[in-house]
């Protein structure tokens, strides 16, 4: 399946490098020691979720594992339930107290308050948190403008429902949807951008926003999305973590369209997933670890990724989205870059 992705790691590599220079059970990778006898850098990654979501957490893990391969660091990933906050704190605390980790990597806005508490207790420990600003003098943050990526797919969703002649699964209802994992600020930020993008195409577009209540129940997300399709939504965008896989399945089984998130999920249901909104999670984690290895990762700072530096973007499914539709979305993207459009935020 062909696809076109509007996100270039080369640009982001430059931006991140300049920014940084200027300013239970787990899996592990790496060797106990390097070939030249130098000390191996140990990285622990206690996560606020589990692998297998084919999206946010898997993208972060790709960055961690590629860093282990490329830089010879030893990485231990510690998974936890997406709604198990006590386990997040316990895993972070244990990793910090061990004294064995040169860098601790975690992520998700839901983890920020926990990390802020734990990092203050271990001021000599260095931390990296993705999808959150820095929360301490010993923490480097990586923040993404998810509202901007959502803006792009919102515009696409509106174009799908307005052009049923080009999208045969659409009924031309003028209605689109979004399924979020939980009703929390970061998910509202997606929703705000999504709605603004849709209404940039046509102010009369209706946007139906509903929440699963967690980030793990794929069946719950499937049922919710199916109900939204039955209520008239031609397209449903998932921002629900692992639960969101149920939305993609519902799009296929309902004979309508869906949109993926954080990673390119187009290939999971290639006949019905028109695009995916992207966050360069894996790329930025990999680059930050490279900077750490080189002694250039600056604590207490935040790397920011938006449309303008390809920290967020969109991956079109070329088999489903005609070139003229892609160009309309591209034009809006350029207007954001040029400052002609400011995407609203819930944060």
Structure commentary:
- The chain is α/β, with parallel strands linked by helices and 347 residues long.
- It has 2 domains: 3-145 and 280-309, Rossmann fold; 146-278 and 311-338, Rossmann fold, CATH 3.40.50.2300.
- Helices cover 40% and strands 21% of the residues.
- The chain has 10 helices and 14 strands.
- The chain has helices at 9-22, 56-71, 85-97, 112-121, 146-162, 185-201, 218-230, 245-253, 281-293, 323-338, and strands at residues 3-6, 26-29, 42-46, 74-78, 103-107, 127-130, 139-144, 175-180, 206-211, 235-239, 257-262, 273-279, 302-305, 312-317.
- The strands form 2 sheets. The chain has a 7-stranded mixed sheet with strand order 1-14-12-11-10-8-9, sandwiched between helices. The chain has a 7-stranded mixed sheet with strand order 2-4-3-5-6-7-13, sandwiched between helices.
- α2 packs parallel to α9 (281-293).
- It is elongated, with a radius of gyration of 20 Å.
Helix content: 25-40%
Kindly report the name of the CATH homologous superfamily of the largest domain: Response regulator
Number of folding domains?
Answer: 2
Helical region count? 10
- In order across it, which strands form the biggest sheet? 1-14-12-11-10-8-9
- H/E series: EHEEHEHEHEEHEHEHEHEEHEEH
């Amino acid at each position: 399946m062909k696809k076109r992705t509007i996100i270039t790691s080369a640009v982001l590599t430059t931006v991140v490098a300049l920014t940084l220079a200027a300013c239970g059970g787990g899996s592990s990778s790496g060797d106990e020691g390097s070939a030249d006898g130098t000390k191996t850098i140990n990285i622990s990654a206690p996560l606020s979720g589990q692998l297998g979501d084919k999206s946010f957490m898997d993208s972060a893990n790709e960055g961690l594992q590629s860093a282990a391969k490329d830089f010879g660091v030893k990485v231990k990933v510690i998974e936890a339930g997406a709604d198990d906050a006590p386990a997040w704190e316990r895993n972070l605390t244990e990793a910090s107290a061990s004294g064995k980790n040169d860098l601790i990597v975690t992520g998700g806005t839901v983890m920020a308050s926990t990390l802020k508490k734990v990092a203050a207790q271990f001021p000599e420990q260095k931390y990296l948190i993705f999808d959150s600003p820095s929360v301490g003098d010993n923490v480097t943050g990586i923040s993404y403008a998810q509202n901007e990526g959502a803006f792009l797919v919102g515009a696409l969703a509106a174009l799908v429902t307005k052009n049923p002649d080009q999208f045969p699964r659409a009924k031309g209802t003028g209605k689109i949807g979004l399924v979020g994992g939980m009703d929390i600020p970061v998910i509202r930020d997606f929703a705000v951008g999504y709605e603004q993008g849709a209404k940039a195409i046509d102010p009369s577009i209706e946007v139906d926003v509903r929440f699963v209540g967690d980030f793990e129940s794929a069946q719950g997300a499937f049922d919710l999305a199916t109900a939204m399709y039955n209520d008239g939504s031609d397209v449903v965008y998932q921002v629900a973590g692992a639960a969101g896989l149920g939305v993609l399945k519902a799009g296929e089984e309902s004979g309508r369209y869906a949109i993926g998130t954080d990673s390119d999920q187009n290939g999971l249901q290639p006949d019905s997933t028109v695009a995916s909104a992207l966050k360069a999670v894996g790329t930025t984690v990999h680059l930050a670890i490279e900077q750490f290895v080189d002694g250039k990762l600056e604590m207490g700072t935040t790397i920011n990724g938006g449309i303008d530096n390809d920290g967020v973007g969109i991956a079109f499914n070329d088999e489903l989205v005609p070139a003229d539709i892609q160009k309309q979305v591209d034009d809006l993207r350029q207007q954001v870059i040029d400052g002609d459009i400011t995407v609203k935020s819930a944060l």
